[in-house]
Design goal:
The protein is of the alpha/beta class. Among the domains are: about 90 residues, no CATH class; about 100 residues, no CATH class. The strands form three sheets. The protein has a four-stranded parallel beta sheet, sandwiched between helices. The protein has a three-stranded mixed beta sheet with strand order 2-1-3. The chain has a two-stranded parallel ribbon with strand order 4-5. The two termini are about 45 Å apart.
Length: about 280
């Protein structure tokens, strides 16, 4: 019987980098149902397909949907799990250099670039010309049929994404400003930051700075009717969850004070992943 496809087993790539212990765990549902073993776990990012065989198998799409339905929420990798479930025992194994996942190569490999097909996955994308693999990626991208406008498209996308992020920040600042028009401000942060924050925001002597402590309780000074709480804390989401759990509402009773700091750039600086998806 003809093999439907050829791919690189994960264990081959991991063994190449000396990371065999990173293979999928023993409770992987396809192991349990005897649909494959470690040798049948391949990545669908780079494959050689037997198109003649697959085109004759007209029910392939329906088989895949039935596979997902039959296994409920056990699957994690969608098309990859489907292909492994259907063809793990009939595929041809390719050498690892047909498919090196960039994330693994960067995490486990050496500095030298090996001759291989590199698979960029999700967050692996970047426009960092200082990194050797990204420089190689950009070189071939620019020389591809669609590469002539790639940098123009990139900077256009940066501008578009940046505008959306800045507008989002401005909207949040406007909500804080509207709340502060009606209430007194209370600053909440670490004791070591109090002097700097008082100077940056010109806090008066009568204005409250409430000192937060890691793992400590939060006892809000003042009244919710008359005070608005600005939180200056690296783990803002933790404080937010605590305050919301006590019945407070964000932008009604409290907000992330770091949104008002000009040096905060992380929420208005687009990352490479968002830019590339926008493109």
């Amino acid at each position: 019987m003809q093999p439907p496809l050829a791919g690189v087993p994960d264990y081959e790539v991991l063994a190449h980098f000396g990371q065999e212990d990173k293979i999928r765990p023993n409770d992987y549902f396809l192991y349990k149902e005897n649909l494959t073993d470690v040798h049948g776990i391949f990545n669908a990012g780079v494959m050689l397909l037997n198109l003649r065989f697959l085109r004759r198998r007209e029910s392939l799409l329906l088989e895949g949907l039935n596979f997902l339905k039959a296994h409920g929420g056990q699957w994690k990798f969608y098309d990859n799990d489907i292909l492994i479930g259907l063809f793990a025992k009939r595929y041809i194994e390719l050498p690892c250099h047909f498919h090196l996942r960039l994330g693994w190569a960067r995490a486990y490999g050496g500095k030298a670039i090996e001759k291989a097909i590199y698979h960029y996955v999700d967050r692996d994308y970047s426009f960092d010309p200082e990194e050797s693999l990204h420089a190689l990626f950009l070189y071939y991208l620019v020389h591809s049929p669609w590469g002539g406008t790639v940098m123009q498209d990139y900077y256009s996308s940066v501008r578009s994404v940046s505008q959306r992020l800045v507008q989002k920040r401005i909207s949040r600042i406007r909500r804080i400003y509207n709340a502060l028009r009606k209430k007194k401000r209370v600053f909440m942060g670490l004791a070591v930051d109090e002097e700097r924050l008082r100077a940056d925001f010109e806090l008066g002597e009568d204005e409250v700075f409430y000192r937060l402590e890691p793992g400590g309780e939060v006892r809000l000074p003042g009244s919710l009717e008359t005070h608005f709480y600005l939180v200056f804390w690296s783990s803002y989401e933790e404080v937010k969850a605590m305050l919301e759990g006590a019945g407070l509402q964000e932008y009604v009773h409290f907000a992330n004070g770091t949104l008002l700091m000009p040096e905060r750039l992380e929420d208005i600086t687009p990352d490479d992943r968002s830019i590339i998806w926008n493109m």
